[in-house]
Amino acid sequence: MTGISIYLTIILAPLITSITTGIFGVKLGKTFSHSFTILGVLIATICSYIVLYQVQIEHHVYNGALYTWLTVGTQTISVGILIDTLTSIMLVVVTSVSLMVHIYTIGYMAHEEGYERFFSYISLFTFMMIMLVTSNNFVQLFFGWEGVGLVSYLLIGFYYKKESAIFANLKAFLINRIGDLGFLLGIALVFMYCGSLYYTDVFAKLHTIRFDILFGTNWNIITVMCILLFIGAMGKSAQFPLHVWLPDSMEGPTPISALIHAATMVTAGIFMVARLSPMYNLSETALSVIIYAGGINCFFLGILGIIQNDIKRVVAYSTLSQLGYMTVALGCGAYSVAIFHLMTHAFFKGLLFLAAGSVIVAMHHEQDMRKMGGLAKYMPVTYITMLIGSLAVVGIPPFAGFFSKDMILSSAVIAYHNHIPGASFAVFTTYASIFITALYSFRLLFMTFHGKERFLDESHHHNHEDNKHHASHKPRESPFVITLPLVLMAIPSIIVGGLCLIGFVTGKFVFGSVFNVSWIVNGFKEEAPSAIEMIKESVIHLPLYIGLSGLLVAYIFYKNPNISNKFVQSIKPIYNILDKKYYMDDLYIKVLMPCGRILGKFLWNIGDIFIIDGLLVNGSANLINRYSKILRKIQNGFINSYAIFMIFGVIIMLTFCTNLIFG
Amino acid sequence: MIMHNLLSITIWTPIVIGILILFIKNQSCIRWCAFFGALIGTIFSGLIFTKFNSTIPDLQFVEHVPWIPSLHISYSLAIDGISMPFLFLNNFITLLVIIGSTKVIKHKVALYNSMFLVMTGFISGTFCAMDMMLFYVFFEAMLIPMYLIIGIWGSSNRVYAAIKFFLYTLMGSLLMLIAIIYLYNKSGYSFNIFSYYQLPLGFTPQILIFIAFFFAFAVKVPMWPVHTWLPDAHPEAPTGGSMVLAAITLKIGGYGFFRFILPIVPDAARAMSPIMITLSLIAIIYIGLVAIVQKDMKKLVAYSSISHMGFVTLSCFMYLNNNLNVWAMEGAMVQMISHGFVSAAMFMCIGVMYDRIHSRNIVDYGGVAAKMPIFATFFLIFSMANAGLPGTSGFVGEFMVIMGAVQVNIIYGALAGLTLIIGAGYTLWMYKRTIFGNITNPHVNAMKDLNYNEFAVLLLLLIGVIGMGVYPELFVHKMQTGVENIIALAARSKLGI
Predict the structure, then answer these.
(1) pTM of the full predicted structure?
(2) How far is Cα A432 from Cα A399, in angstroms, rounded to an integer?
(3) DSSP annotation of A251
(4) How far is it, in rounded angstroms, from Cα B230 to Cα B424?
(5) Domain range holding B144?
(6) Interval A364-383: pLDDT, tens
(7) Contact assessment for residue B244 and residue B93, using Cβ atoms and an 8 Å cutoff
(8) Is residue B94 part of a domain?
(9) Do the domain assignments include residue B496?
(10) ipTM for the complex?
C-alpha cells in the first residue's frame, strides 16, 4: 500500500468502525464492539507507523485534494490530505495513544452501561483527530477542531444522568465556542488577505502582506490573524482564561481523560500554532502574547493542582500546567520543542491518567485521595507505572519529560537573551513550575500509594457487614487489559525523550513543516547536546534540584501533616483564592451566564412582549377596536337618528357647495 | 410534452390530488393518495434539479401562456439558480410532513393532507412564477391553507396565532400590491418581472418601492421587529405546519430579497443597507438571547429560526465597493436551504416528543435519552446542526456568511459570529434539559422510541443535513450562476439609465 490509499485507510478505518459500532453495536454485542473498533484503530496505527517511515526516512511527503467541498466565485475549497513530517508524528502519537486507550477501555468500562456507545465515540474521536492533523487547509482543520469538540462533549457527558457531567459538557462546549469564534474570524481574515485557505498558498502569500494593517486600524494584519487564531487555541488547549472547562471535563470516564483531555485534543491548539509557524514567525507581538498565556497557565494553574484532593483533578491541573509549558515553547518560537513536549506529554500524561483510572477501578470509583493510601503493595504495576509517569512529568533524567522540558527551559532562556518581551516572565514561571509539578505529582503518589490504608476506615464506617464480604473490598491490581496499556505507555514515557531529542532540537523530525524562529535555530546550533551529555549536565543544573526540592517538600508534608496544615493556615487568604480557582468559575457561572439570561429575559419581556407585541401589534389592533366602538354607536339602527344625520349632512354639503359656486 | 411542462406538473399535481382526496372516505386510501401526490411532486422537482443546467444564467423550463391578455397578465413559469433549490426543498419537506403525520393526525385527515398538498403547490408556484401578478396570486393563496392548518389542528391559543399570522403577512403583501401596481404603470403595463429589472427608476420611487417590498418580505423572513407572529404561530401550529412554516414559508422572504428587492431597486437597497445590516444583526444577537430564556421548545426553535434567518438578510446587504459579496450571497442561499432541513428536523423532533406526552415545556422533560436512545441520537445531530457544527449543513451557510461579512467589515463578522456561542447555548441547553439528566416526570418513563414513520422522516432529513455539510458543492454549483446573476443586477445603478 502506498500513497493516497494508505492515508485514506488511516482516516477511514476509525470512522467506519465507529459508525458500524454506533449503529449495530448493541445488537452485535460487547465483544464485537471492542474487537471491531480496536481492529480499526490497530490498522490506523500500523499504517501511521508506515507513513512515519515513509516520511521521515524516505522523505515522501504528500499534499493533495480529495474532492471539491465548495466553490464560491473563483475560489475552491477542497477536502485534502497533507502528509508531512509534522503530520506523520502527530498521526503516530494520536493512533498509538488511541490504541492503548481502546484496549484499556475493555477493562475500565467492563461493567458500565453504554459500553458499545463508548467504543463508538472514541473511534469517532480518533477519526476527527486524524482529520484535524491531516488537513491541508483551514476549513478542514476547523472541521476536525469542532469534531473533536463534539466528541469531547459527548464523552464528558457520557454519564448523561449525572447532573455534574451534563453541566460540565455544556460548559466545555460553550467555552470552546468562545475560542472558536476567534478562530473563525482568524480564518476569515487569512482568507481575506491571502486569498486562499490552503496552508501552502497562505504561507507563500504572507510576505507580501507582511506590513499591511487591518482596515480601519493601525494593527499589523498578521498580528491580528495570529492572535485571533491563538484565541481558538486558547479554547481548545485550555489556556487562561478559557481553561475552566478542562478540570470539569474530568466528569467523563477516565479513558477519555487520558485520550482527549491529556494526550490529543487539548494539544490541538499547540499543533495548530506549530502548523502555522511561518505565520507566527512574522509577528513578535503575537509570540509575546503566547508567551504570557503559556506562562500564566504553566505556573498559576499548576499551583491549583497542589490543593486538589480528587486524583483526576490533580492530573488535570498538571495537564493545564504542561500545556502552559508547550505554549511557552511556542511563544519562544521553538515550535519543534513544543511538538517534542506534546509527544512526550502524550505518553506520560496519558499514562498518569490511565494509572489514575486503574486506582479508581480498584477503589470502586472513589476518586478522593483522602480515602486512599497504601495502595502500592496491592497494585504494584499501577504504582510503578504511575511513578514512572510522575518522574517523567517532573522532568527527572532520564525520563522522557526531562528532555522535552529542559529544551523548553533552554528555549525560554534563549528568548530571554534575545530580549523577547515576556521571556523573563516565561523563564521565571517555567523554572518555578518544576517545583510545583514535583510537589503535586508526589503529593498524589504519597497520598495514594503510601501511608495508612484509609479506604479501610471507610468501609468500616459504612459497611458493618461480615468479614467475608469485607475481604472482597480489598483493592486488587487491575486486570491485564488495564495493566498492559500502562506498561506499553510507560516504555515510551522512559525512552522516547532521549531517542527523539536530537531530531526535535535540530528540527529534523519536523523538517519542512515547522520552522523555528531564527534566534532559536541559532541558539540550538551553538549548544545542540546529545542525550547522554544532557543527563550528565543535568547534575550541575538548577532544574533537577528544583524538582528534587519539590519532591522533598511533598515528602515532608506527607510525613508531617501538621506542617502542611499550619502552612495552609498561615497563607489562608491566598489559599482561599486558590481554593476558589481565582474565582474564574464564578466569573462564568455567577456573572456571565446570569447576565446572558437576564438580558435575554429583558429583551423578551420588554422588547418583544411589551413594546412590539403589546404597544405596536396588539396596540394598533386595540386602537382600531376602540375607535370602531365609537363609530359603531352612530350606526345604531334607529331610522330617526339616521334621518338627523342625513339632514345635517345635506346642510353641510349644501353650504359647502353654495360657497364653492357663489363664494 | 412532459418535459416542456415540468414546472406546471410539479405545481398542479399536488393541488389536484389534494382536492381529489377530499372526496375519499377511506382513511388509509387518503394517506396513500396524499403520499403519492407528494412523492410525484418530489420526484418531478428532483428531476428538475438534475436536469437543471447550472452553467447558464438564463431562465429554464420556461412556460408562457397568456392568462388575462387585456391586463397583460400571463401564466409564465420558469426557474433559475435561486429558485430551483427551493422548489425541491418545498416538495421534499411536504413529503416528509405527510409521512410524519400518518400516525399523529386522526381528525379531519383528508382536509389535513389536502391542505398540505395544496399549499405545496402554491408555494412551488410562488418560486416559479415569472409574472408579477401570478406571483402575487400564489403568494397570497398559500396563506389560506396555512391559516387553516394553524386554525384547525393547532393547540389552545390557535385562533389568536392564526389571525396574527394572517394579518401580519397580509399587511406586508398589501403594501407590495401597491408597489406592483406602480411598477405595472411605470413599465408600460407589463407584469413581467424581468422587465422591471431593466426599468429605470428615480431614487425616491426606489425607496418607496423598497419599503413596500421590504414589508412584504421582512414579515415573511421574519426580520426584527416584525417577527412576533412567528413565535406565536409555531407553538400553536401542528408539527407539520411548523415544519413547512419554518422550512419553506420563511424562505419566500429571503427569496423575495433576491428576486425582487436587489434587482429591481438596487440603488435603494444600497442606500438602505446600513439599516438592514443593523436590523439583521439585532435579529441574530437579540433574538438569540431571547431564545436562550424560552421555556417552550417550539418557541425556542422559532426564535432560533429568526436568528438564523438574520444571516440571510445580513448577507443580502453586504456591499463592498457597491458590489454584493459573493461569499455572503451564496452563503445566504446555503443558509436558507440548510435551515430548511435543520429547522424542519428540529420541529419534527419536538413533535415526536410532543406526541408522546403532549407538552412543549422543557421542564416536563429530562432523561429522554434513557428511554429513546435512537431519537436522542437524531436529535443530537440536528441540535448540533442548529448550533452550526462543521460537517452539518448548519455550518456551511454560517461559515460562508461570516467569511463574506468579515471581508466587508470585521465588526459585522464578529457580531454575526456571536451566534457560534449563543446558538450553541440555547440549542444545547435545551438538549441538556430535555434529553439528558434524570427522569423526573413519570410520563417520560412511558415514552417509546421512534416508530417507522418518524424514523424514516428523521433519516431523510439526516441525509440532507449531513450530505449538505459534507458535500455542499452539490447544491452550491447549481445555484452559483443564478446568484452571480443577481449580484450583477444588484451592482447596477438605475438612476442614470
Answers:
(1) 0.91
(2) 20
(3) G
(4) 21
(5) 3-491
(6) 888 888 888 788 888 888 99
(7) yes
(8) yes
(9) no
(10) 0.91
